[in-house]
Amino acid sequence: MAFHFLSKGLVLEQHKEPALSRDLRELIVPGSARPLPLPKAEDPAALSPEEIIAFADAAGIIDERDSLPLGEKLRAARRDGGTAMVVADAIDDEPYVSSQLGPLFKLSSQAVGGLLFAAKAAGAQEIMIGVYKNVYDLRLRIPNTLYGVKIKRITGKYPAEARSSFPEGGEGVLLVGVCALIHLYRAIHNHTAQTTSFLTVAGNCVANPANLEATNGLSVWQALERCGLLEEPARVVIGGPMTGMSILDPAHTPISATTRAVLAFLDNPRERHYSCIGCGKCASVCPQELSPLFLYKSSKQKLVGMLRFYDVERCIGCGTCSYVCPAKLELSAEILSAKRLVEGLDKAQPQTQPQEGTQEDQNDTQSV
Amino acid sequence: MILKAYNPPHIRKRDSNRSMMDDVLIVLIALYLMAFYYYGPRALLLGLHAAGVSIVCDLVCKLLLRQKLSLRDHSSLVTALLLPLLLPASVDYAVVAVAVAFALVVVKYPFGGVGHNLFNPAAGGFAFVAICFPKAVFSYPVPLEALNAFGSFTGRLVTSASYTLKAGGVPTGGDFLSMLLGNTPGPMGATNVLVVCACLLYLVVRGSVHWQMPLCFLGTCALWAGLFPRAPIPGGASVIYELFSGCLIMGAVFMLTDPVTSPKRASACVVYAVFAGVITMLFRRFGGFEESFAFSLLLCNALAPIFDYLDELFYRAVRRGRFVPAKNKKA
Question: Residue A274 is nearest to which of B12, B16, B305, comparing CB atoms?
Answer without folding.
Answer: B16
